[in-house]
Amino acid sequence: MNSLRKSLAIVAAGMLMCASVSAQECQGGDWTDNLANMGRGVVNVVTCWLEVPRGLIYHNSQLPVLGLVVGACQGAGFTAIRAFAGVADIASFGFMSDSIYKSCHGFEEWVWDARWVPHNN
Questions:
Q1: Rounded mean pLDDT, 94-113
Q2: What are the backbone dihedrals phi and psi of residue 29, each rounded to the nearest 5 degrees, phi first?
Q3: Residue 120: inside a domain, yes or no?
Q4: What is the pLDDT of residue 47?
Q5: Residue 68 contacts residue 59 (beta carbons within 8 Å)
Q6: How crowded is the C-beta side of 79, counted as CA atoms within 13 Å?
Q7: Contact, 94 vs 35, CB < 8 A?
Q8: Which among 57, 69, 91, 106 has the fewest CB atoms less than 10 Å away?
């Protein structure tokens, strides 16, 4: 098991080095944006499950009981989108733009930036 962990760590380190070198060559040395996008991908893969409780809290506060069903469905969908966006960020070595985050209405770049409770009007 330790050899598997060491191998994964070596592969991850190699991917980061390749991404930073190719980012410097393709974008004129602006590799920090690519590393930030890769970091965003890792964070979104790790925190994607938080979309379900966020959806439950948000929709149940608007529509008790029925909001649990709506919130669970929306949370599951947003979990899949956030996981996909995170994997895409990682797989593209950070070269992916923010198009996934900007094209989905109500879908923020980070799960903690999304609305957890509705605004009172």
A1: 74
A2: 95, 0
A3: no
A4: 93
A5: yes
A6: 16
A7: yes
A8: 106
In a domain, 119, yes or no: no
**Which amino acid makes up residue 44?**
N
As a whole number, mean pLDDT of residues 42-48 equals: 92
What's the confidence (pLDDT) of residue 21? 46
In a domain, 118, yes or no: no
**Domain encompassing residue 81:** 2-113
- Placement of tokens 């469905």 in the chain: 73
Distance CA 57, CA 75 (A): 10
Q: Supply the DSSP symbol for 94.
A: T
Residue 2, pLDDT > 90, answer: no
Instruction: Residue 20: name the closest of 7, 29, 12, 11 by CA.
Output: 29
Structural domain includes residue 121: no
- Split at pLDDT 50, 70, 90, the class of 10 is low
User: How many folded domains does the chain comprise?
Assistant: 1
Tokens of 103: 């094209």
Separation between Cα atoms, residue 116 and residue 121, nearest integer Å = 16
